[in-house]
Amino acid sequence: MARPKPWEVDDELWAVVEPLLPKVERRARHPGRKRHPDRLVFQGILFVLHTGIAWEQLPQELGFGSGMTCWRRLAEWTKAGVWPRLHELLLAELRSANVLDFSRATVDGSHIRALKGAPRQDEAPSTGAGRAASTT
């Protein structure tokens, strides 16, 4: 039997993902074009992320919708907080199945500044922006 492609979403995974996606109702008065199916767009997003191609180069023959459709839906779902919730659900499922191996995990906190103590009341917390420009 052929191995499924990494961007192909089986029914079991889709049953986890679908309830997390925001429901978008069509307008009654000016409905416009029918929305491309979420499952196909999700697969299109996975295809682009897996292959590394540009969004506009997503092949129409695959049926995932246009690259712009996938890109917009990715932004919509990101704004709705779908990805952190999906991550939590999948981690919980893997934990319950006892298939997570933390012996190979690493933690990297290098992107966060470690300050000694709290900032003084007369100082605003630093965001790190503009530090290079103000070195006079």
Automatic annotation (TrEMBL):
This is Insertion element IS402-like domain-containing protein. Pfam families: DUF4096. Residues 113-136 are annotated as: Disordered. Coiled coil: none annotated. Residues 10-87 form the Insertion element IS402-like domain. Signal peptide: none annotated. The lineage of its organism: Bacteria, Bacillati, Actinomycetota, Actinomycetes, Kitasatosporales. It comes from the Bacteria.
